[in-house]
Write a structure and sequence with these properties.
Number of strands: 6
Structural class: alpha+beta
Strand content: 15-25%
Number of helices: 3
Helix content: 25-40%
Oligomer: single chain
Largest sheet: 4 strands, antiparallel
């Protein structure tokens, strides 16, 4: 079996920041890494669930809403994935529709500033959420404030990749 690309990232050296996880088939998957994996606690499930609701609401109502495909948490609870369609307007220095890490950084900073102003989490009723009791706005805002500070003051965007040898001897590396 092929190794999943995200499993080739060296999580022992991964810092909070924003990374391009994948670019293919007209989409860019961004890794919004909130905590330092295996060195800091993961985001608590209730706080991550609230952050998912808030970030999804903001991104799907923002100026880039037509390009937002998915906003959701990583299973390890150390960050969020945002998938964007690559069909926006061309800007100087890049192809049409290719969102950059700096674009996502600016958008995420705006989003987190909005999250910090909220007094409730949207869609937290039994009718609108599959686990409506699993929310924690205060902890979500604490994590958001910490991540916002990191994006503004100690920004990281380059993965450290692993070199993996498959069972058949082929090398899977993307360094």
């Amino acid at each position: 079996m092929e190794i999943i690309q995200s499993f080739t990232i060296d999580h022992t050296h991964l810092k909070p920041g924003i990374y391009v996880s994948r670019q293919d088939n007209g989409f860019t998957t961004f890794d919004l890494r909130i905590t330092e994996p295996n060195h800091e606690p993961a985001v608590a499930p209730a706080a991550m669930h609230s952050l998912e609701h808030l970030m999804a609401t903001w991104f799907r109502n923002s100026r880039v809403k037509a390009d937002v495909v998915y906003v959701g948490p990583m299973g390890c609870l150390t960050g969020m994935y945002i998938i964007m369609k690559d069909n926006g307007a061309a800007t100087e220095g890049r192809e049409s529709g290719s969102y950059t890490v700096e674009d996502m950084r600016s958008l995420t900073i705006e989003c987190l500033q909005w999250v910090l102003q909220q007094t409730e989490v949207p869609a937290t009723t039994p009718e609108t959420c599959g686990n409506y009791l699993l929310h924690d706005l205060p902890m979500c805002q604490w994590e958001s404030a910490r991540y916002l500070s990191r994006l503004q003051n100690d920004f990281h965007s380059e993965y450290t990749k692993l070199r993996v040898t498959l069972d058949d001897g082929r090398v899977f590396a993307d360094a």
